[in-house]
Design goal:
Elements (H helix, E strand, L loop, with lengths): L19 H6 L13 H8 L9 H10 L8 H17 L6 H15 L3 E2 L12 H7 L1 E2 L1 H14 L4 E6 L2 E6 L6 E4 L5 E5 L13 E3 L1 H18 L3 H14 L4 H13 L3 H14 L5 H17 L1
Parallel strand pairs: 1-2
Antiparallel strand pairs: 3-4, 3-7, 4-5, 5-6
Helix pairs in contact: 2-3, 4-5, 4-7, 8-9, 9-10, 10-11, 10-12, 11-12
């Protein structure tokens, strides 16, 4: 079942990843995500953009595309634009942040039927944007991506907010932004700067687009570890460094997982990347340097 709706084209600078070429091969020469790119190439481009310049919807679909190599993503990209078009048509100008948040919820939750999956919350489909669009159900962060992407395309603006055990979205400018909960139908939680917006014992923490995607992937990685599926956990870690190639801690995770899987050459490359990116006096840099030396001895 495909998306129930009707592509935009963005570019970025290309970066080199030790995993991208091998990942891309698995899709064959004819596979495209509707941008003329395979997922690995698209994510390599997005990985070089500024944190908040990463296109959330396209990047999340590219990540999902790894697990659906025969699926044409063009209809899903079109659906993202349809959400924005429907929102824009309903929006009065000028609109307050509260009005804009209400229109977002009416469009995404009411018109298109997106809600949190309260029945099978831990189902891996809930972090896969292709399946989220197919099923109209997902995790808080996956649904948050739809709200944020729609807001950006509709000219409203929004920011992802991390909270303890939850993910919500701020809509509007910082001065009058309001917080909504995508998992619960976009319900209004209150002004961003009001104490009522602090839920579950902690204040909301603003996160960049890149960190939103990393949170989505971390949900997958956590579930893979819980299922003792170390191969899957390594696969997800490799995707994380595609979208965030400057993060030393993520390279360290790839290195450790690769070493545990017996992929020593991959582990050595990842440890080396970690050492290069981390500050010399950083603990993770020292650990990576020691581990790199040990792995090289095993290889030789």
């Amino acid at each position: 079942m495909g998306p129930r709706a009707d592509c935009i084209n963005r570019t970025g600078r290309v970066a080199v990843s030790p995993f991208a070429a091998n990942i891309a091969k698995s899709f064959g020469n004819g596979w495209s995500m509707g941008l003329g790119l395979d997922p690995a190439t698209a994510l390599r481009k997005f990985g070089q953009l500024a944190d908040d310049a990463v296109p959330l919807g396209e990047a999340a679909l590219a990540l999902a595309g790894f697990d659906h190599p025969t699926t044409d993503l063009s209809p899903y990209l079109t659906h993202l634009q349809q959400l924005a078009d429907d929102t824009r048509r309903r929006l009065s100008q000028p609109a307050s942040a509260e009005d804009a948040a209400s229109v977002l919820a009416e469009t995404i939750a009411v018109k298109h039927g997106y809600f949190g999956d309260t029945i099978s919350y831990d189902d891996m489909q809930n972090a896969d944007l292709i399946r989220v669009i197919d099923r109209r159900r997902g995790l808080p962060v996956a649904l948050g991506i739809l709200y944020l992407e729609t807001a950006a395309r509709a000219g409203i603006g929004g920011t992802g907010l991390n909270m303890p055990g939850h993910f919500v979205v701020a809509v509007g400018l910082a001065s009058d932004a309001v917080v909504i909960d995508p998992f619960n139908g976009g319900v209004l939680l209150g002004p961003l700067n009001h104490p009522a917006s602090s839920l579950r014992g902690g204040a909301p923490q603003r996160v960049s687009n890149r960190d939103v995607l990393l949170r989505l992937l971390n949900n997958m990685r956590t579930r893979a570890h819980a299922a003792k599926d170390q191969a899957r956990a390594l696969t997800i870690a490799e995707r994380m460094v595609l979208i965030a190639p400057q993060r030393a801690d993520l390279w360290f995770e790839v290195a450790r997982a690769s070493e545990a899987a017996g992929k020593l050459m991959t582990a050595a490359g990842a440890y080396q990347a970690c050492v290069k990116l981390a500050d010399a006096d950083n603990e993770i840099s020292r650990e990576a340097a020691i581990a790199l030396h040990a792995v090289k001895r095993k290889i030789n």
